[in-house]
Design a protein that fits this description.
Structural class: alpha+beta
CATH topology of the domain at 144-280: Arc Repressor Mutant, subunit A
GO molecular function: DNA binding; DNA-binding transcription factor activity
Number of helices: 19
InterPro entries: Cro/C1-type_HTH, HTH_RamB, IrrE_HExxH, Lambda_DNA-bd_dom_sf, ScfR_C, TransReg_Diox_bact_type
Helix content: 40-55%
GO cellular component, one term: cytosol
Oligomer: single chain
Protein name: HTH cro/C1-type domain-containing protein
CATH class of the domain at 144-280: Mainly Alpha
Shape: globular
Number of strands: 11
Domain HTH cro/C1-type: 12-66
Largest sheet: 6 strands, mixed
Strand order of the largest sheet: 7-6-10-9-8-11
């Protein structure tokens, strides 16, 4: 049977230093040469089973301490170096394992420092939001990546681009579609006739990691068969918009004043996505249909042959001067709580609504997939909102893949309740759900869902009295 060998030089060195021994003294006790012990400590020779037993017998060392890997520390270091600020600094895991093995105290120090950095960034964000609620502008912010800049820019402004809307509506009219005509066929024919581009769907094995790919040499637009017919339509419409509405998209992009080329590239993609929705659901026709249907998303998705998510997106865009719809806003999250899409007809109402309260029905939606949940929620200042939430399924998953599922919240001021079909669900019924912007800025007492103490109040720990929350405050 082969002898099991363990390379644990840094741990042996720590044991020796902890005992205050020289290499010569430890080598003599272990009945090996000092040069051999030196090689062991430099991980150039293994610790054999015999040496492990000798260490345990002579120095009363726990064998688990020598044989165990620094997996916990290494995994935490991976989290640190996965941060966008440090991405690319370490090419692989081996160096992190070596750091965890050779300098565990320094590694733990780096981990603590990173946690403090994240906590400080979180508190700065909370402070910025608190000041914004009180009407004070602030330049406090953490390190921003291009994607952060793009998201913040789109979230803070109204989700309406007049040039794109006008051009998309005119282009759609120019297609000359009659009732019952297929928009997908019309857009494919336009791509072929005007630019020689042919659209093809490819099986998963041919394009396993991509939604779409445009081959400039063969003039073909490949779409993954993972995509639903609605998502395929949007991808085709995006390609059409980039070709036909390029000037309008560029003009709107320049008006956003992004600071880097990468941010501009991402912003152009978002504007192309916006334009695709405007093309698929032309402003005038969509607004008229939405008002007649009292903003019933399911009715509208059937009317325009699109998805629930596409209709919800489009409802946040209806802010043409003189022909505006209800000012909806939307929020999309995954079941881990990551928020990656926020938009609003007047900018996402971060200061008033927040969207980070665990009591919002967007989080409950994951327990009831594909069901529409409607609530009347009330903020601490008495402001009310009508919220409509539903789960969304991403691209088609294979047998051994997990479905990508997110939840989307569509909201508006409660004052519009009577104009929205969902308002009848909460009219004259149960009292509103008491929510807040986010736990760290919410001062509701006795909240069962509280996850963090508010930054605006000191903790009220009392040995004699315990409240409903672990984060009682004064």
């Amino acid at each position: 049977m082969a002898e099991h060998k363990i390379f644990a030089g840094p741990r042996v060195r720590r044991i020796r230093n902890g005992l205050g021994l020289t290499q010569t003294a430890m080598a003599e006790a272990l009945e090996i040469s000092p040069s051999y012990l030196n090689l062991i400590e430099r991980n150039q020779r293994p610790l054999t089973v015999q040496l492990l037993l000798k260490l345990a017998a002579v120095y009363k060392v726990d064998l688990d301490e020598l044989q165990g890997e620094a997996g916990g520390t290494a995994s935490q270091l991976r989290e640190v170096f996965a941060d966008p600020l440090l991405a690319g600094e370490v090419p692989g895991d081996q160096e992190l394992i070596e750091v965890a093995e050779a300098a565990p105290n320094a590694a733990n120090g780096v981990i603590k420092l990173y946690r403090a950095y994240r906590e400080q960034a979180s508190r700065l964000t909370d402070l910025a939001e608190l000041l914004a609620r009180e009407g004070h502008a602030t330049s406090l912010s953490g390190t921003r990546l291009p994607i952060d800049e793009v998201r913040e820019t789109f979230e803070k402004r109204p989700n309406f681009f007049a040039r794109i809307e006008d051009a998309a509506e005119a282009f759609h009219a120019g297609l000359g579609l009659s009732a019952g005509d297929d928009l997908v066929v019309a857009l494919k024919n336009w791509l072929r006739a005007k630019h020689g581009i042919v659209v093809r769907a490819l099986p998963i094995h041919a394009m396993p990691n991509l939604r779409r790919r445009y081959d400039r040499h063969s003039m073909r637009l490949f779409l993954s068969e993972r995509l639903s017919p609605f998502d395929q339509l949007r991808e085709i419409a995006m390609e059409v918009c980039l070709l036909a509405l390029g000037e309008e998209i560029l003009a709107e992009l320049e008006g956003l004043s992004f600071s880097t080329g990468e941010a501009k590239r991402l912003g152009r993609f978002e504007l192309a996505r916006y334009a695709a929705h405007a093309l698929i659901m032309p402003y005038g026709a969509f607004l008229s249909a939405a008002q007649r249907a009292r903003y019933d998303v399911d009715v509208l998705r059937s009317r325009f042959s699109v998805s629930y998510e596409q209709v919800a997106n489009r409802l946040t865009m209806l802010q043409r001067p003189g022909a505006a719809g209800i000012p909806f806003f939307m929020l999309e999250v995954d079941n881990a709580g990551h928020r990656f899409r926020k938009a609003g007809a007047s900018g996402f109402p971060q200061a008033k609504f927040g969207g980070g309260c665990p009591k919002l029905n967007i989080h409950a939606a994951f327990a009831q997939p594909a069901q529409i949940l409607v609530d009347h929620v009330e903020m601490p200042d008495g402001t009310g909102f009508l919220t409509v939430s539903r789960t969304l399924d991403g691209p088609q998953a294979g047998f051994n893949e997990r479905v990508r599922r997110t939840a989307l919240l569509l909201g508006c001021d409660i004052a519009y309740r009577d104009e929205v079909v969902y308002g009848q669900t909460v009219a004259g019924g149960l009292p509103p759900v008491a929510v807040g912007t986010v736990c760290r800025l919410c001062e509701r007492q006795g909240c069962l869902a509280r996850a963090e103490p508010p930054v605006t109040r000191p903790l009220g720990l009392d040995e004699m009295v315990t409240g409903l929350s672990a984060f009682d405050f004064q």
